[in-house]
Amino acid sequence: MKIMVCLKQVPHQDARLDIDGDGTWIKEDNIKFEINSYDTYALEEALKVKDAGEAEVVVVSIGPDRVTQALRTALGMGADRAIHVKDPETNGSDTLGLAKILAAIAKEESPDLIFMGLMADDGNFAAIPPMLAELVGIPHSTAVVNVARANGTVTVDREIEGGASEVVELQSPCLIAVQSGLNQVRYASLKGIMAAKKKPLDVKTAAELGLSGQVGAGAAKVRITKVAPPPKGDRADILSGSTDEVVAGLVGKIKELGLL
């Protein structure tokens, strides 16, 4: 069995984010990056299958040189090999463009399963998983919180609106986009980090994937025209007085807001 895991490198959750000069994205020069949190659960789920002696795990990511760090981390956690799509022609790709790139990799690799996170921490579009599945021509399920496999059938539990869930059966090959909290993500061990240096990491371009002119800013159907920090809210109300007065004031405020 072969499992493909799609990873995205995103700004570190504790990074200070400032808007860049043209107001269309953030300044990326002096901030730390990490693997998208949702994708770490996808990787862990793939590694669990590998631990059972049943799979080769291939991790794939798109982006500049810094993305190598994320791929090496995944290799250190236990993935077998990595593919890095590194090409200026892919810069500015919208979700469809990114899905086309991943689909080209998937068609070359022919994985039995594709695992990826439900969404990216920076974009929150949650659009690439269904697009990728459609382009490859395989069934998929999103917001998955449990995965079970038996005889070529993958049974998943997925979250739906209102706190409910549903059970979906998929025939392999298929794509599964996982929700956070699906499992307990492991850390890369020192032994794994050292071994990762010897594992294959292939670099591919848009041309090599047959996508010249089909991805990147020039082919994008959706463009970000402006990014802005959220507006500041009203000032906080400071309650003063004795304990009883503060409690009474707090209860009054809660009632005003309809929370009690």
Helix content: 25-40%
Mean pLDDT: 94
Strand count, sense and barrel status of the largest sheet are:
9 strands, mixed
Overall body shape: globular
How many DSSP-defined strands?
A: 11
Q: In percent, how much strand structure appears in the residues?
A: 15-25%
Q: Stretches where pLDDT falls below 50 for ≥5 residues? A: none
Structural class: alpha/beta
Number of helical segments with 4 or more residues = 6
Our Rg estimate from Cα atoms comes to 22 Å
Order of adjacent strands in the largest pleated sheet: 9-8-7-10-6-1-4-5-11
| Secondary-structure element string | EEEHEHEHEHEEEEHEH
Distance between the termini: 54 Å
How would you describe this protein?
- The protein is of the alpha/beta class and 260 residues long.
- It is 27% helix and 24% strand.
- It contains 6 helices and 11 strands.
- The strands form 2 sheets. A 9-stranded mixed β-sheet has the order 9-8-7-10-6-1-4-5-11, sandwiched between helices. The protein has a two-stranded antiparallel sheet with strand order 2-3.
- It is globular.
Question: What's this, in brief?
Answer:
By secondary structure, the chain is α/β, with parallel strands linked by helices. 27% of the residues lie in helices and 24% in strands.
